[in-house]
Amino acid sequence: MTVFDSTLRSIALEQPATIRVFESFHLDYCCGGNRPLAAACAEKGLDLETMLTALAAATSVGETAAQDFSKSTLTELICHIVATHHAYVRNELPRLLPMAEKVAGKHGPVHPEFVQIERQLQQLATELTMHLQKEELILFPYIEALEASRNNSGKAPHACFDTVESPIQMMVNEHEAAGALLENMRTSTQGFTPPAGACPTLVGFLHGLDAFEKDLHRHVHLENNLLFPRAIALESEMMATR
After folding, report:
1. What is the pTM of this model?
2. What are phi and psi of 39, to 5 degrees?
3. For residue 99, what are the CA distances in angstroms to 111, 118, 124, 183, 209?
C-alpha cells in the first residue's frame, strides 16, 4: 500500500509527528480518519504534493516528534488522557462559555453566527461533561481492571454491559457529535477567523475554540485509534481463555 492509499488514521498511528500537519490543514485524522490520504486531500481541495512535502518534513530527522503512546500500557494511556485531555476540557469550558455569552451579546446583532455558536458551545459543554464522567466512572475503570486481571492471570472483571464494545461504540458516537459541533463552529466563522474590527474578547474566543478543537482531535485520536481497539482485543482474548 502506498502513502496515497494509507488512511489518515494509519499515518497518524505509525508516525505521530504527522498529527501536527493534519491539524494545520484541518484534516480529521480521528473520527474521520479512515479515509485514504489522497481522497481526503481531494475532498478538501488540497494539493497532494504539498501535503506529502509537509508530511516528509514533519517526520524528517531533527523534527520534534509527537509523543508515541503505541507502546504504553492501557492504564498509562488512560492516565495520560484523563490528566491531559479531560483536564483541558474541564479547564477550558468554564473559560470559553462566559466569552461566548459576551461575544453573542455584543456581536450577535451584526454577526448572528455567534448567537448560534453560543448555543452550540453550551450543548457541547453539557454533552462533554457527561461524556467524561461516563468514561472515568464506568469505561476506564473496567479497562484498567481488565488489564490488571490479564497481568495477574485472573478472570475478566464483572461489567454492567455484555462486552466493552457496547460502551465504546457509545463513546465513539459522542466523539463524532462533539467533532461535528466544532466543525460547524469552524465553518460558520470561516476557520475561526475574526471579522474586521473584532474586539480582543472575540479574537481570544475564536483562538480558544481553535485550540479546543485541536486538543479534542488529539484526545479522540488516542481513544478511538489506540485505547478502544486495544481494549476490545484484550477483552476478546480474555473471554477466549475462560
Report:
1. 0.80
2. -70, -40
3. 15, 9, 15, 19, 11
The number of residues in the chain equals 242
For Cα atoms 125, 224, 146, give the angle at the middle one, nearest 5 degrees: 105
pLDDT, tens digit (0-9, with 9 covering 90-100), for 84-94: 999 999 999 99
Q: What is the DSSP letter of 162?
A: S
**pLDDT for the residue 62:** 42
Closest residue by Cα to residue 210 from 189, 234, 225: 189
Residues 232 and 164: beta-carbon distance below 8 Å: yes
In one-letter notation, the amino acid at residue 92 is E
Coil, strand or helix at 154: coil
**Which residue blocks in 108-199 are alpha helix, DSSP H?**
113-134, 140-151, 165-188
Cell numbers 475532498 label which residue? 43
Transcribe 58-96 into DSSP letters.
HTSTTSPPPP--TTS-HHHHHHHIIIIIIHHHHHHHHHH
CA-based nearest residue to 164, from 238, 220, 85: 238
> CA dist 123 to 91, 108, 120, 126, 241, Å?
17, 18, 5, 5, 43
Measured between alpha carbons, how far is 52 from 22 in angstroms, rounded to an integer? 11
The per-residue pLDDT for range 29-56, each reduced to its tens digit, is 887 788 899 999 999 899 999 999 988 8
